[in-house]
Amino acid sequence: MGGKCGLFQYADGIDKLLMLLGSLGSIGDGLMTPLNMIILSSLIDDFGTADDSFSNKIVDEYALKLLYAAVGVGVSAFIDSHLPSSPVSIRLWPDCSFFLSWRLALVSFPFSLGFVIPGVAFGSLLMKLAMKMKDTYGIAGSIVEQAISSIQTVYSYVGESQTVSRCSRALEECMKLGLRQGFTKGLLIGSMGMVYVAWSFESWAGSLLVANRGESRGRVFISAVSLVLGGLSCIAALPNLSIMIEAASKIFELINRTPEIDSEDTKGRVLAYVRGDIEFKEVTLSYPSIPEVQVLQNICLKVKSGKTVGIVGGSGSGKSTIISLLERLGLVNQEPALFATSIKENILFGNEGAMVVEAAKASNAHEFIVSLPNGYNTHVGQLGFQLSGGQKQRIAIARALIKDPRILLPDEATSALDAESERLVQDAIDQVSQGRTTIFIAHRLTTIRKVDKIIVLQSGIIVETGFHDKLMQINEGGGGVYFNMVKLQQSTSRNTTDSPYHYKEATSYLRGQYDNTSKFPFFARSSWQNSPGNTPFSPAISTSYAPSIQTYSFCDGDYEYSEISNSTHQRPSTWHLFHMNAPEWNRALLGCLGAAIFGALQPAFAFCLGSVVSTYLINDSSKLKSEAKLYSLMFLTIDIISFFANLIQHYNFAVMGERLIRDCGYQQMLTWYDPLLEIECPCSFRFLLVLP
Ligand SMILES: Nc1ncnc2c1ncn2[C@@H]1O[C@H](COP(=O)(O)OP(=O)(O)OP(=O)(O)O)[C@@H](O)[C@H]1O
């Protein structure tokens, strides 16, 4: 344990001292109940043999003993680790029962295991179910998360019903697991009723020991109490122990992991000055996931410091792979990732105290930044969603520039932009690439006409090299690869400009097709134009729809919708909420019934337990035995009732809870389509009704 691989491998001296103090405290804390038990056993004996001499003096004596025990335990508990049940106390319970009455402890020991075994078995089953449920809820959650983060795409492809049904399928799976979990929980807590079986046996066996063997009444009774409590402590502590061991092994696995590429490794050559010359010498590369495919084959490429190179080629030809091999040198991605902070912080990333405005001016970003209400302090939002693609790219260029890289690698930086943004970004790149080695990847071949060298890639092989005019002159068999790419792009761009079929119309057409067939009322009114989700992008259109907003309620599996004012919506009446809960009434009643029965068993159990103590004090041994038998039978009856009461209670509440979670999740999916509505989800009221 204390060795290099043990549980305490990362503990220093202070940690070990604290753990030692904690352990000592734990021993003291664990002594509390056995000490009390020993004191109480004497008290019961003295009470049983009491005559008129059972005076205040004896009472004072026991009160003082208990006070001393309490002070000692209080001090120990203060320095204890405060685990719900420390291993020390578990260890002391059985010791105490053996000390008080070894015969009873010996014969009753199997009964203690009787409720430890089902506890451990059902407990681990519950744990497995909980892990499965976590994964399944994770799937449902990721569907929602993905849909929300790409809400515009979901809208424009009319993917609402598909997304809702995917999410509800995942939630159905969660519900099935939840029901199994409820049933197992019922079995687990029901099987805890084995504690009554232990009581049943111990009160009967104890009566025999008192009547036939003349054992001390107090010691026999308290020995039985210790045995039961010892078993219960085991059950309470086992999950803690297993969680501790499991957590420790996972943490150590993480700490001990040796990454293949260690970014903190100081070995290797550190260049004092990067001139900017790049050379690929017969580079061949395969990705580990597909080792048989050579993504780059025998690449030889020389770029002199300060020169510009353009890499072109079809999709999957290996352009980005070349750039990936050169990363960390000043990269401008296709989709630049901005951080959810201000523009200034984004530009400064990795280089505090640099000239932000100069970098923004050089990247053509200054003008648009100062036109924003908060200028350089404008928050760009998560991943920069509050900025246009071109604006993001110009900020990314400023960020790259601020590091003053010798090598700049713009990866299709202008591929997703309109003509005006493309011009601004291209100007920025042209400006900042002056005096730096720059390797462009561009799908729009017009952007690399002026570069010093163009590399044409096909399936990871360089098939042509040269500047634009030279490559355009290759005319073998209908032209070279680059020549054909340029021609194809020219004709495609002409066709696109001539086409009257615009994106918005295409989208409206697409939605119209689906809207007619949609089975959800939501989608019937959910057109591109009046969609509240579309508001930020088309305010003029959406305001004309604003006064009338629709909402939905989920009732007996059917959707109702009604028009309400967007400013006022009434809170539903309590009766209405009860009515909405109608499908759950029978489950709620059964669950409450189970809970009430189990609750009622506790006073019955307390009565039986108290009666057993009184019975042990009877001097007539045959009466003692017959009464003890009666209470023994009563404990058994309590056990059986408790098992079924718990099963009924936990299963029915699980059914109810899981249905509510499913419905709420489902309702949530419908609600988030309309960010403006802020409908209070009716199911949340149902939750509130259930939770108390
Ligand atoms: N991480 C990876 N694991 C396995 N294969 C990969 C990985 N990244 C890329 N590839 C494969 O390597 C090949 C080259 O990919 P690469 O991204 O370099 O092409 P590209 O020319 O940049 O394509 P595009 O123009 O579409 O971005 C492709 O066949 C791709 O499927």
Strand and helix map with partners:
Blueprint lengths: L12 H36 L7 H24 L7 H14 L1 H48 L1 H6 L3 H32 L2 H20 L3 H40 L21 E8 L10 E8 L4 E6 L5 H7 L5 E2 L10 H6 L7 H7 L3 H6 L17 H14 L4 E4 L8 H14 L4 E5 L11 E6 L2 E6 L1 H5 L8 H18 L4 H15 L3 H4 L14 H5 L4 E8 L2 E8 L8 H7 L4 H32 L4 H51 L10 H9 L2
Parallel strand pairs: 3-6, 3-7, 4-5, 5-6
Antiparallel strand pairs: 1-2, 7-8, 9-10
Helix pairs in contact: 1-2, 1-3, 1-8, 3-4, 3-8, 4-6, 4-7, 4-8, 6-22, 7-8, 7-21, 7-22, 11-13, 13-14, 21-22, 22-23
The structure holds adenosine-5'-triphosphate (ATP).
The site of adenosine-5'-triphosphate (ATP) has 12 residues, from helix 9.
Keywords: ATP-binding, Glycoprotein, Membrane, Nucleotide-binding, Repeat, Transmembrane, Transmembrane helix, Transport
Family: Belongs to the ABC transporter superfamily. ABCB family. Multidrug resistance exporter (TC 3.A.1.201) subfamily.
GO molecular function, one term: ATP binding
